[in-house]
Amino acid sequence: MSDEPKAKKKKGGGMKMILLLVVGVVVGGAGAAGGLYAAGFFGAKEEGPKEDPNKPVLVLAGESAEDVATAHGGGGGGGHGGGGSTVAAAHGAPHGKGIDLPTPANPAAYQATYFQLQAPFTSNMTDTDAFAQISIAVSTYYDMRVIEAVKTHEMPIRSQVLMLLAQQPEEMLSTPEGKRQLQGKIKGVINDILKQKTGYGGVDNVYFTNFVIQ
Hints:
By secondary structure, this protein is α+β, with helices and mostly antiparallel strands.
C-alpha cells in the first residue's frame, strides 16, 4: 500500500517534463520562424522577369512614335545624333536570334509609322538578262526605335535585299502573287537583321513604291 502513492508521484513528474519539452519546442520553433520571416523567407513576393528597356513598345492611335520612344527611355534625335538611348538601342549588341514583335490583334487601335528607304534596289534576276528595280517603304506599329534601327542598319538590309532580288525568276515577279511573296520575303530579311543587330524585329509590312522589270 505504501508503494502506490510513490508510483503516482513519479508519473506526474514525467508528464510535467513532457510539457516542458513541448513548450520549449514551440517557443524555439516560433523564434526560428520569426528569424526566417525577418530574413525574408516568408511573405516575399516573387519578382517576374524585368522588361528590357530597349524593347520597342506599341504606339496607340493618335500618339507620336517619337514621344512614345522618349517616354520609354528612347530619347529623341530622329537618327541624326543627340538621340541618346534611341541611337543606343538601334546599335544594340546582338541578342542571339532575337525576338519577333507581333502585329497587334487590333491594328486599328494603334498608330502605324512609315519610312521610305530612299535609294532604289536594282539587280539582275536569275536565269535571264532582265533586271528588276524596286523602291520600298516599311511600316511598324511600334515606337520610333524600330525606324531608327532600320536607318542605322540600312547597309546590311540593302545587301540582303539585293541578294534576295537576284534570286527571283522574272516569271514570278511578273505576277501579283509573285510580288506579294517577295514582299513577305523582304519583310523577313529586314526583321532578321533587326533581331540580329538590336534583339527585336518590329517591321509589320513592306510596300513597293516603285517596281520596274526590264
